[in-house]
Structure to design on (495 residues):
């Protein structure tokens, strides 16, 4: 187990990886291996209750490599620069199957790194330590992040001193003998033990079910709260917060956004974050009976006592009978309560009026923007419709011109078709006449040929008489039949 935070007796490595040294005075030669290692300071614990400081002796990165690990290394490694948004459960899931080989883990805070923490891990054997170093060194914590896991071998880690603060708490930082979750004893044989940054120990299997970033025992969160800044200019100096609406603005010695907020909203009370005192802008002074309680952080009244230390005080109202003083004090308290209630009521009423005016202005502005948007949309719609209408009119005119031209072309083509039809009719008539003449000539030729054939078959005397016979007149000489008859008569004369 880890050594107790409040223990002052040194212990060996078998008892824990954090032996407490009560003789450390800043000389690193008291620790082993300081000539071959680098000393890295760390701290743990709740800063409001108790803070424990120590030193880790780490081998340098050039000595802690995959192929050349330190010869005198131990089963102790340190995971540096783990992002604060990774909870204890996230880190246990990140380690995966190596958790069963771990003996203990301790979350510590590196000096100067508020947004990161370190984890010191001790394994049960050297093979598991080397496997963890080989597998996780240089590996990303997740695929969505650029931060990588940085693992270094550690020679030793020891406490140097413990700082106790004045504030008390119901939850102490002493290590609990039992796990606060399962109420079983924190025995190393039951599995790895994780000690949070506030020095509370749990079983890894139990803390893995705790998804919150705070400690299950004391609710201390390892994530540091964000620093307040001015809501207007973003400065972090001389800040004031309005006790009515919570507006954070800078003081009059910076940009004066806090007093400008009072002028705009009439919220006259503002709390100075550095001194926790309330300023009244109307009275232009501090209102000392409004302070912040250190227990719960609420605004409470400050009861004034007599400032005189001696018993012979006679210049103030603290003299006299204690019963009368108590009655006067109670009456003053009641008067202050009534005044404060009236003041709070008036401030809330002013706040209501202010926000109602803001809502009315916002409503009017929204209505104006809506009307302007509607007019703009209607105007754009009308412009588009007019453009579309003009385009349609132009298209209609174009179509009318095309239709008129088509009608004219139709008349022209109709007249041309009629002329062509008339020419075709005349050609057909002429062709029929030619055909008729050719048929007549062909008929005469056939008759003539038949006559010649018949004359050739008759006796010579008859054929000579036929040849000496006078030819009858036939068709005109212009016709082909006339030419044929002339040729027949010439043949006859020759014969």
């Amino acid at each position: 187990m880890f050594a107790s935070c409040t223990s002052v007796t040194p212990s060996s490595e078998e008892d824990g990886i954090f032996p407490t040294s009560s003789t450390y005075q800043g000389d690193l030669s008291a620790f082993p291996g300081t000539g071959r290692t680098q000393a890295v300071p760390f701290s743990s614990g709740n800063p409001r209750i108790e803070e424990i400081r120590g030193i880790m002796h780490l081998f340098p990165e050039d000595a802690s490599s995959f192929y050349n690990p330190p010869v005198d290394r131990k089963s102790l490694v340190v995971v540096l620069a783990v992002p604060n948004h990774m909870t204890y459960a996230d880190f246990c899931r990140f380690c995966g199957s190596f958790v069963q080989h771990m003996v203990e883990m301790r979350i510590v805070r590196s000096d100067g790194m508020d947004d990161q923490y370190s984890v010191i891990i001790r394994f049960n054997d050297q093979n598991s330590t080397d496997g963890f170093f080989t597998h996780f060194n240089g590996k990303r914590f997740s695929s969505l992040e650029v931060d990588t896991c940085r693992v270094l071998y550690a020679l030793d880690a020891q406490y140097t001193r413990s700082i106790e603060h004045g504030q008390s708490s119901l939850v102490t930082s002493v290590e609990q003998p039992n796990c606060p979750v399962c109420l079983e004893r924190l025995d190393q044989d039951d599995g790895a033990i994780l000690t949070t940054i506030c020095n509370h120990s749990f079983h890894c299997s139990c803390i893995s079910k705790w998804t919150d970033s705070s400690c299950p025992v004391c609710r201390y969160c390892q994530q540091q709260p964000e620093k307040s800044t001015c809501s207007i200019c973003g400065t972090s100096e001389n800040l004031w917060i309005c006790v009515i609406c919570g507006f954070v603005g800078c003081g009059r010695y910076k940009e004066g956004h806090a007093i400008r907020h009072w002028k705009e909203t009439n919220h006259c009370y503002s709390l100075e974050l550095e001194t926790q005192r309330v300023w009244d802008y109307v009275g232009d002074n501090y209102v000392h009976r409004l302070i912040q309680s250190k227990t719960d952080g609420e605004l409470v009244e400050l009861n004034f006592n007599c400032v005189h230390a001696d018993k012979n005080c006679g210049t103030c109202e603290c003299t006299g009978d204690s019963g009368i003083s108590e009655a006067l004090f109670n009456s003053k308290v009641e008067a202050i309560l009534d005044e404060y209630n009236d003041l709070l009521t008036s401030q809330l009423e002013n706040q209501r009026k202010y926000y109602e005016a803001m809502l009315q202005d916002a409503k009017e502005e929204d209505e104006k923007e809506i009307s302007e948007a509607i007019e703009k949309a209607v105007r754009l719609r009308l412009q588009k419709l007019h453009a579309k209408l003009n385009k349609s009119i132009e298209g209609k005119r174009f179509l009318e011109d095309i239709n008129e031209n088509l009608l004219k072309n139709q008349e022209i083509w109709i007249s041309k078709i009629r002329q062509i039809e008339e020419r075709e009719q005349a050609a057909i008539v002429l062709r029929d006449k030619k055909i008729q003449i050719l048929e007549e000539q062909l008929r005469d030729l056939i008759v003539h040929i038949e006559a010649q054939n018949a004359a050739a078959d008759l006796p010579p005397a008859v054929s000579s008489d036929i040849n000496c016979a006078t030819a009858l007149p036939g068709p005109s000489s212009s016709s082909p039949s006339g030419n044929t008859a002339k040729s027949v008569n010439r043949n006859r004369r020759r014969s």
